């Protein structure tokens, strides 16, 4: 081995040669840091062994034609710089993951041309009502039983507390009356809840059935050029997963939202009657929870729309691969197709991860505010009992109804975010349902029983709408006389 060194001073150092021809140099006298400007790669034709070679340390400007600089390394200075840099990186990372940071934003997850136009919640509910309007009696029966069940449930804590304290005071007649009312309320609530669930399930089935029927019939009446720009995987995804996502709107989301709004309103009125200071404190906490709920719901709507778009893109890749499997096998592109599919799966996983993180923040907010309500109620209520303003029975009722109000607010927020998710997932479906049929299906023409005459096409140019830059026919003139059969045959070169 020969190593050419120009103008160098010699100091004994030890160099270890490894299998991949990397050089690790440590000085016996003073630690040096060698910085290669041209990043040379040394190659030695030696047999691999564990022998060590002693060479001279390098203070010169070139080694085998590669520029080298020698710089001192101070361990303390490097540690302080790295510590400051780590602190800066931690601060920057915290800024990105905090609510409102760049980590929560969706900028280039899906190409903007694939995103459907936004649809408001009210607009989406109006379209859904148009689909189920023929069976409106099912909806009316479901909401009627929902109202009766909600009112029955909201009065149960009052009579439950009254029964406990009447038994404690020894008033048997009041205790029996309260127990009888509790039994009636529980039976009424159970029967109405069962009927409500049955009717809402039927309404869900009707909604999904008619939505798929309407979407399928609309797509069938589109022009051929529409199918040139849309893939089979995308269309089947709209008919499948997107429509199924909407199935929760009536039976789950609207059902729980209306039920908890009624119960929460009743609980708030009862709290204000019992003690308006405690009621106002609970109302402030519920308003804070509602604000967090609104922001979370809008975020969930956006994530749901992106997830549905990415799901459609992944289905498109799978559809293309399976339909052209022979071609894929001939050219051996299985790994390329797998990478294409994993690309969309990774995007979906990233969005789902952020969606789960947002749900965790929402639950953290709820639990914090819920326990804060309990603490405030105990503090203010205990002081009121000591002052003789309220009784222990009233404080017990207040705790029960404040818990009911907080949970009602949480259920409203959770189901409202689910409703926004469904609306976001259905935006593309509603956009396709609004498409106008092809002209050939809506134009009114006259059918000729007998066609005679001389037809002549002069300077005809034609191109498909999906590929307007490619001319199929350009300045073509054709003359067709009676009794002739004319065919246009093209050769693609």
UniProtKB/TrEMBL annotation:
Residues in ABC transmembrane type-1 domain copies: 140-421
* Subcellular localization, as worded in the UniProt entry: Membrane
What transmembrane ranges does the database entry give? 137-160, 181-207, 268-296
Q: Name one GO cellular component term.
A: membrane
Protein name in the entry? ABC transmembrane type-1 domain-containing protein
This protein's membrane topology, according to the annotation, is:
Multi-pass membrane protein
CDD domains in alphabetical order: ABC_6TM_TAP
The family database entries (Pfam families) matched by this protein are listed as: ABC_membrane (PF00664)
- InterPro entries the record matches: ABC1_TM_dom, ABC1_TM_sf, P-loop_NTPase, Type_1_exporter
- What species was this sequence derived from? Eutrema salsugineum (Saltwater cress)
The family database entries (Gene3D superfamilies) matched by this protein are listed as: ABC transporter type 1, transmembrane domain, P-loop containing nucleotide triphosphate hydrolases
- PANTHER family in the cross-refs: ABC TRANSPORTER B FAMILY (PTHR43394:SF19), ATP-DEPENDENT PERMEASE MDL1, MITOCHONDRIAL (PTHR43394)
Cite the SUPFAM superfamilies for this sequence.
Answer: ABC transporter transmembrane region, P-loop containing nucleoside triphosphate hydrolases
Q: Name one GO molecular function term.
A: ABC-type oligopeptide transporter activity
Name the keywords, alphabetized: Membrane, Transmembrane, Transmembrane helix
Superkingdom: Eukaryota
Q: Where is the signal peptide?
A: none
> What's the chief localization of this chain?
membrane
